Each structure stands twice: as structure tokens, then as C-alpha cells.
Recover the amino acids of this structure.
């Protein structure tokens, strides 16, 4: 190659190098100017009341006692619901790993916040007692009202589905 071509190559290489260094310096400056903050509670959990015709709030259906629902609950339906809604955050097999949430095998009848090795929130650790029908039903209905500050935000508004999930959890003891 001629000297002129070598000089052109050096100019292009220097321009690319300069652009990379400039981008890196801008990144350092931007990181110094902006500090992200984490909200104290999840901002995506929104409670919206149901609205009927004319904009009037719809009265909630009377809650059926969980004992009545457990009489018709089905563990197979519960397993299907768990596989659809819960496996992204929980595992259910014996000795399974903790994920975003704890492994839920042998949860029913066990102490609340009992799974070893899982870092439960202070809200869940403060709850005493064992997971029974009532506690699990309340938890699945609205985890934040059961243990304010809990990491879990997924709600299950359908009573029959909650009963099926509880029946499944009871079956994997």
C-alpha cells in the first residue's frame, strides 16, 4: 500500500477510537449525574374497582367461605392453574429450587415463611402460625393485604380457582 492509503486508514481508525472513547466518557458523566431509585412498594400493582353501567361501582359478590369451596375443589385443576400461573416464580417438586418465590412443596400445614434458604420479607416472617385453608385463601386473594410489604403481588380473584390451588398444595405434602 502507498503512504497515502496508510494515512487514510490511520485517520479512520483514529476517528473510530475517538468516538468510542467519547461515548465511554459520556456514559461515565451520565452515571454520575443520574442515580436510579427503587420504590418502596411495587408500582405496578393497581387496585381498580369494577365499574358497571353508568360509571357506578359494582358491589362485590358475597364471598363464599373457603370450607364450602374446598368441598368441590379439585387438585388436578389446581395443578393446571399452578402450571399456568405460578411456575414462573415457584417450583413445586420435592427438593426443588427456590426461584423468585420459594419452593412450595410441603407448604400446606407448614409454618408460614418456613422454607429454608429463602429470604422471606419481614412482613411474611412476622406472621405466625401454619398455612391452612383460611391463611392460604387470604394470601392468594391479595398477598399485600395479608402481609403488607410482601414481594408477591399476584392476586387470584376467583374463589373456585383459589380452592383448587389450595387443594393441589394440600396434595403435594
Amino acid at each position: 500500500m502507498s503512504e497515502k492509503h496508510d494515512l487514510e486508514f490511520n485517520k479512520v481508525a483514529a476517528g473510530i477510537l475517538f468516538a468510542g472513547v467519547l461515548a465511554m466518557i459520556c456514559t461515565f458523566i451520565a452515571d454520575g449525574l443520574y442515580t436510579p431509585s427503587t420504590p418502596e412498594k411495587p408500582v405496578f400493582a393497581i387496585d381498580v374497582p369494577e365499574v358497571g353501567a353508568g360509571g357506578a361501582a359494582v358491589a362485590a359478590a358475597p364471598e363464599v367461605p373457603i370450607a364450602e369451596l374446598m368441598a368441590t375443589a379439585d387438585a388436578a385443576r389446581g395443578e393446571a392453574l399452578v402450571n399456568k400461573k405460578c411456575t414462573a416464580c415457584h417450583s413445586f417438586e420435592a427438593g426443588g429450587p427456590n426461584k423468585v418465590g420459594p419452593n412450595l412443596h410441603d407448604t400446606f400445614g407448614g409454618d408460614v415463611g418456613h422454607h429454608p434458604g429463602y429470604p422471606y420479607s419481614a412482613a411474611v416472617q412476622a406472621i405466625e402460625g401454619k398455612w391452612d385453608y383460611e391463611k392460604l385463601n387470604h394470601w392468594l386473594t391479595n398477598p399485600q393485604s395479608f402481609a403488607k410489604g410482601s414481594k408477591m403481588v399476584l392476586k387470584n380473584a376467583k374463589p373456585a380457582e383459589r380452592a383448587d390451588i389450595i387443594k393441589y398444595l394440600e396434595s403435594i405434602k
Remarks:
- Helices lie at 3-33, 66-72, 75-85, 122-125, 133-141, 143-146, 159-171.
- Residues 49 and 55 are 11 Å apart (CA to CA).
